[in-house]
Backbone:
């Protein structure tokens, strides 16, 4: 999914967050000079258009919904997986 967004025009990936420092998404983000982190909460003060939740945890999705910047579209992990499978 990250590769698709990175290569698509009209998208600026501002950060990739994962608790696993060796996650493939974090490795790609570092390679492409995209900010990485272990905690998504600091990014909630940024003007974000799209947040893709990939943990599959309902509690995390709900927290993101509560704390997301106004107007941010949130893609749940099930939808993100489906999109990745289709491409």
Residues:
């Amino acid at each position: 999914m990250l590769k698709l967004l990175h290569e698509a025009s009209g998208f600026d990936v501002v950060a990739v967050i994962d608790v696993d420092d060796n996650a493939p998404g974090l490795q790609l983000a570092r390679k492409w000079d995209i900010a990485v982190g272990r905690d998504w909460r600091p990014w909630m003060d940024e003007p974000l258009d799209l947040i893709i939740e990939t943990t599959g945890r309902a509690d995390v999705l709900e927290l993101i919904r509560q704390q997301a910047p106004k107007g941010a579209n949130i893609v749940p992990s099930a939808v993100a997986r489906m999109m990745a499978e289709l491409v």
